[in-house]
Design brief:
Blueprint lengths: L5 H7 L8 E6 L7 H12 L3 E4 L6 H11 L3 E5 L5 H14 L6 E5 L6 H10 L3 E3 L1 H7 L1 H12 L19 H15 L5 H12 L5 E6 L5 H15 L6 E7 L8 E3 L26 E7 L11 H10 L4 E5 L16 E6 L14 H4 L2 E4 L7 H16 L11 E3 L8 H16 L31 H39 L4 H17 L2 H18 L2 E6 L2 E6 L1 E3 L5 E3 L9 H10 L25 E3 L4 H12 L5 E6 L2 H4 L8 H4 L12 H7 L10 E6 L4 H24 L5 H14 L2 E3 L3 H7 L7 H17 L5 E2 L1 E4 L1 H5 L4 H21 L4 H4 L3 E7 L8 H16 L4 H4 L3 E5 L12 H14 L4 E3 L12 H16 L14 H22 L3 H7 L2 H19 L17 H4 L8 H17 L4 H13 L4 H8 L5 H12 L7
Parallel strand pairs: 1-2, 1-3, 2-8, 3-4, 4-5, 6-10, 6-11, 7-9, 7-10, 11-12, 12-13, 18-19, 19-20, 20-21, 21-22, 23-24, 24-25, 25-26
Antiparallel strand pairs: 14-15, 16-17
Helix pairs in contact: 1-7, 3-4, 4-5, 6-7, 8-11, 9-11, 10-14, 15-16, 15-18, 15-30, 15-34, 17-18, 19-22, 23-24, 23-40, 28-34, 30-34, 32-33, 39-40, 39-41
């Protein structure tokens, strides 16, 4: 890679002269926020105050944040298509709402092609960066240019009169935001501020100050209190939230990280009508940095509070940055101080040092599900009692509450809210009687942890189990070797001199001692070895699977007449080596399944998947038929558009409309699902459907199951010339559920870790995943995987292969523990779990399947006592999306070919090869055929692929297997030390690791230390111009309009039935019933978006984090 020019080096070192503020986010329905996270870190390092909104942000949310936070710039990453509409809509909204001077920057890693970049920049977007720009300028150079362009003083926009900030219209709030900027920069007009202070002094507006230790959950608790206030008071009150975060002393930058946590600050009413000029906005939020004030508050805070009061808000809430034991700067500025802490404060004597326990009117012990919470509640209540000298009042009546802000509808938070409401009413807040039912508790109750506290060390147990098994295998192998050696020695002594019996007796005694220590299973394996050699030496192998006898040809002939065996056994003669190989490797289809899950691949069924997803269901159905033409096995892999992935309905709003049918198929109703798979027999043994969808997976799965059922009811009608009876329908239904084959991804754990399509709260999502597993058990669903535990998206977010494997397997074991905690039996659900990995270019990918299969099998058998079906790990491979580069995209097929080859050598159960142009667009018909041809050529033309265990016996493969397995087990231990997968997620452990590894890769790519052909070495002299000529697959205007019309028709047809079903669905959540069972009925008359919104109200929305 060439050195950066002096100009770009200077930009990389740029430091602003004014205080620059940026909003950063990933676009609507876009989960890939690793890139924008890297950008916001570099921005902070350059001295910028960054309001980071995370992934999946609508134009309205971004623009509202930019206007209220009064920033100079917006930086957006957009990878999921619809970017032209998204950015244009953003420019339009900024102009319409008083933010025309705010500059918009964007990037999409090659997805936004050069003609679109030119179109957007001509429309008013300041700059869209391409991968070529990244190569020329460097990451820091790009960011430096953004900061330089935004390095402007915007305090001149501040209003000149108090009236300008009053009235609660869009422009009044905009003026308030601009006044706060002037206050922060100490440039506000003094006469105006005197008028503001006087106006504020004449109003009775209570101010709540929420403070506490860093990481105690202040933002989440603030959000939950606001949500309850809005629900309880019929959304009648207007609230100003002022949130303060610390500035970095070294750079002057700041991560203003509270807004990302807020789910309850957006408008709840339908936006913009004549009688609602404020667009239904009820909450104004402004983030402040402490700057050089040396405290947990901003110097401007007193005046900012006065400005909010003068603006006429009913309530002002101030949230400070994290504080230490001796800090209490917020107290003099607010009417009601609230102190938030966690149960882990150390010894009770530490409480005597906390200043805020003297001043706080309310104390919240948040994260009340942690160990020692009830002791903490008692100790803090006693300390508050002592501080107040209120010895006549029992400690349990002190204003100390145990809360779990992370849990939806937590009664501990409700208790705190209701106590706070009474206090605020006394201070003049105009509150009504309240719509929320009164609670009588003082702390969170109904705690049903996903994984019981007694089981949080499960990964440590699994690590010990796997290591113990391997140690046992090696010690047994040593015994077998010694036993063989001793017996052979005895034989040779006897042959040499039959009269020398003493030495022979001694040797045989030593052999007998070892024979008693060789366990029966090891003896059996050794005894069966000659039979195994004989079985694999013939021309045919006979195996029984589920009462069926399957004969498999064991050999093929090359053109030269060489016999190629399907499975080749080692030539070992040493019993130790034989036993070690049988216990740690073995043939495919035999424990521990290191070499493969099944004994042989199915005849005439390649692991090839037909991958499609574009436009409307009609177009994708045509693509499926084209790809599967002439192939006996129909393995249909479905990609959904990002509107569907986030549980939304298609809509005419530009930022949604642009994404309908792009980068996947649009599915909103059962009607769509029937069209999508029309013409395929969904219950045929050679048909399987995989659906890559997570957040709304339960709804999509219910639609699919209904499609398969209705297909067979229609078949009955055609064959019998009449409708089936109710009994016949029930029989058809049960038969379909037992026979339909496929998988739905539905893995919510990796979605949180890789920051992708999380829409519901993690706890609720896991509950519904358990409901699906339970439904499958009750209805004997044997051939459909209830979840595909995915490492692909973890890898896409930036994880290296070891982290991908460790996080994915640990997620799988977490689901096992969660389902066991629900009372399910291991062998009822484990066979319905499958895995999904990404294969990249690193050496570790070569043994990914070997390591995964062995760890899973050993843990299942030795730790959980599971049967053979449960021990078999089934996994799907998709070639790496991260190694699809936008530069020299034709070269991507070469990378994909190598990745497909190692997947086939490693005996994956199914394989999807990415199309080369997926780096920048929905793949075209031509590129998808090329991608499929890659694996067809390997399977049908590549001579060595006729053998099914080519990796076995290679020294490097054996060493890599051991190294990668040990690295994965070490990662298990690290996760176990953090309270298991869910405990580690709470502290952001997996996310942090993924982001660090992503950053490491990007840096090596940019410096050229990691050579990538066509990207940073062997570069094309014609650069970006190549992409100008590329064919782009996009959904058409007709397809988008058709989807809107079909959705409207579906809503019209079911207008009467839908509301009752949605109510029934919500009631199932409230009653903790099986949600999936009700979804099976609800999807018949409710659309995807209707169901998602109904579940938000009772299951909770996902809370984004950094």
């Amino acid at each position: 890679m060439t050195d950066l020019s002096a100009e770009f080096k200077a930009l990389a070192e740029y430091r602003p002269t004014h205080k620059v503020r940026f909003v950063t986010a990933a676009s609507l329905f876009d989960g890939h926020d690793a890139a924008i996270n890297i950008m916001r870190r570099i921005l902070q390092g350059m001295g910028v105050e960054v309001i980071h909104l995370g992934h999946n942000r609508s134009v309205d949310e971004v623009v509202t944040a930019a206007l209220q936070e009064d920033v100079q710039g917006i930086a957006i990453s957009s990878y999921q298509g619809g970017h032209v509409e998204y950015f244009k809509y953003m420019v339009d909204l900024l102009k319409a709402r008083g933010g025309a001077h705010i500059q918009v920057f964007g990037g999409g890693g090659g997805v936004i092609v050069p003609p679109e970049i030119r179109e957007l920049q001509a429309y008013g977007v300041t700059r869209i960066y391409s991968p070529e720009d990244g190569q020329r300028m460097g990451l820091a150079g790009m960011i430096g240019e953004m900061v330089m362009r935004c390095d402007q003083d915007i305090t001149g926009y501040a209003p000149g009169t108090v009236a300008a900030i009053q009235g609660h219209g869009e422009m009044a709030w905009r003026a308030l935001a601009q006044l706060i900027t002037a206050l922060e920069n100490q440039k506000a007009d003094e006469s105006l501020m005197a008028a503001v202070r006087a106006d504020a002094g004449n109003r009775t507006i209570p101010v709540v100050g929420i403070t506490g230790t860093g990481g105690a959950g202040k933002s989440s608790l603030t959000d939950e209190l606001i949500r309850r206030l809005r629900l309880d008071q019929g959304d009648a009150l207007r609230v100003a939230v002022i949130s303060i975060d610390p500035s970095r002393r070294k750079s002057g930058g700041a991560l203003l990280g509270d807004r990302i946590r807020m789910n309850a600050i957006g408008p709840w009413q339908l936006p913009a009508s004549a009688d609602a000029p404020d667009n239904g906005q009820r909450v104004f939020m402004r983030s402040l940095a402490t700057r050089d004030f040396g405290s947990e508050i901003s110097q401007a805070l007193p005046d900012v509070i006065a400005a909010c009061k003068a603006a006429g808000f009913d309530l002002v809430v101030v949230e400070t940055s994290g504080i230490g034991q001796g800090d209490a700067a917020i107290v003099p500025l607010v009417d009601v101080p609230v102190y938030v802490m966690t149960p882990e404060f150390g010894a009770a004597s530490q409480l005597e040092k906390i200043d805020m326990l003297d001043f706080a009117e309310f104390v919240a012990i948040n994260k009340f599900d942690r160990k020692g919470a009830s002791d903490a509640l008692r100790d803090v209540a006693k300390q508050v009692q002592r501080n107040r000298e209120a010895f006549t009042t029992p400690p349990e009546q002190m204003p100390v509450f145990g809360t779990m802000a992370a849990r939806f509808n937590d009664d501990g938070v409700t208790a705190l809210y209701q106590a706070l409401r009474e206090r605020l009413a006394a201070l003049g807040l105009k509150v009504g009687p309240g719509l929320l039912p009164a609670v009588t508790v003082r702390h969170s109750t109904n705690q049903n942890p996903v994984v019981p506290a007694s089981r949080v060390r499960y990964l440590a147990e699994i690590t010990d189990t796997v290591r113990d098994y391997k140690a046992r295998a090696r010690s047994q192998a040593r015994l077998a070797r010694e036993l063989q050696q001793l017996r052979e020695t005895a034989r040779m002594l006897h042959e040499d001199d039959a009269a020398r019996d003493g030495a022979r007796s001694t040797v045989l005694r030593l052999a007998d001692e070892r024979a008693t220590r060789l366990d029966s299973a090891a003896q059996k394996l050794l005894a069966q070895w000659p039979q195994m050699q004989k079985a694999y030496a013939g021309d045919e192998y006979v195996v029984r699977i589920r009462d069926r006898e399957i004969r498999t040809a064991l050999t093929t002939k090359s053109l030269s007449g060489t016999t190629i065996r399907k499975v080749v056994l080692p030539q070992f003669e040493d019993h130790g080596e034989i036993l070690k190989w049988l216990m740690l490797d073995n043939v495919p289809g035999s424990f521990p399944y290191t070499a493969g899950t099944f004994a042989f691949k199915r005849e005439n069924e390649d692991p090839t998947r037909m991958f499609a997803g574009e436009g409307d269901p009609f177009r994708t159905n045509r693509r499926f038929k084209l790809l599967s033409e002439g192939m006996e096995a129909k393995r249909l892999s479905t990609a959904f558009d990002s509107v569907t992935l986030y549980g939304n309905n298609p809509d005419a709003r530009p930022d949604i409309y642009g994404k309908v049918g792009n980068s996947g198929v649009s599915v909103a109703t059962l009607d769509d699902m029937k069209v999508l798979y029309g013409g395929f027999d969904l219950c045929k043994p050679t048909t399987s459907v995989s659906m890559t969808i997570n957040g709304p997976a339960p709804t999509i799965l219910a639609m699919f199951m209904n499609t398969a059922i209705d297909q067979n009811i229609d078949k009955f009608r055609d064959e019998n010339g009449r409708d089936p009876t109710d009994t016949e329908i029930e029989k058809i239904r049960e038969w379909v559920l037992a026979n339909v084959r496929g998988t739905v991804q539905a893995d919510i754990l990796k979605e949180d870790q890789g920051q992708n399509t999380c829409i519901f709260s993690t706890e609720f999502s896991l509950k519904v995943m358990g409901d699906i597993a339970e439904y499958f058990v009750h209805h004997d669903v044997r051939n459909f995987y209830s979840v595909s535990i995915s490492g692909y998206h973890i890898a896409e977010a930036g994880a290296n292969p070891i982290s991908q494997l460790a996080f994915t397997l640990s997620n799988g074991f977490t689901l096992v523990e969660a389902y066991l905690a629900r009372g399910m039996h291991i062998d009822d659900f484990a066979p319905n779990l499958s895995f999904f990995f990404s294969n990249g270019m690193d050496p570790e990918y070569t043994v990914m399947g070997r390591v995964a299969r062995r760890i899973w099998a050993v843990a299942m058998k030795e730790r959980y006592g599971a049967n053979e079906r449960s021990q078999k790990l089934k996994y799907h491979i998709q070639t790496s999306g991260r190694s699809l580069h936008a530069q020299e995209i034709q070269f991507n097929d070469i990378r994909t070919t190598l990745q497909a080859l190692i997947a086939i050598y490693d005996n994956c159960n199914s394989l999807h090869t990415n199309a080369f142009d997926e780096a920048i667009t929905t793949p075209t018909e031509d590129s998808v055929r090329r991608a499929m041809a890659i694996q067809l050529i390997i399977n049908r033309e590549w001579g060595l692929a006729k053998n099914e265990n080519p990796n076995q016996g290679a020294f490097v493969i054996e060493e890599l297997t051991e190294l990668v397995e040990e690295a994965v087990l070490a990662e298990f231990s690290a996760i176990a030390d953090r309270g298991g997968v869910l405990g580690a997620m709470e502290t952001g452990y997996q996310r942090g690791r993924i982001q660090d590894e992503s950053m490491h890769y990007e840096m090596l790519k940019h410096t050229g230390e990691l050579p990538i052909v066509g990207v940073n070495t062997f570069r094309n002299p014609h650069g970006d111009a190549v992409l100008d000529k590329l064919e782009l697959a996009r959904s058409t205007e007709e397809e988008k309009q058709s989807q809107l019309a079909r959705l409207q028709a579906f809503h019209e047809r079911h207008r009467d039935a839908a509301p009752a079903q949605l109510k029934r669905l919500q009631q199932a959540v409230i009653d903790n019933g099986n949600v999936f069972e009700v979804l099976m009925d609800a999807v018949r008359c409710c659309s995807l978006g209707q169901i998602t919104n109904a579940l938000f109200e009772v299951g909770g929305q996902y809370r984004r984090n950094m």
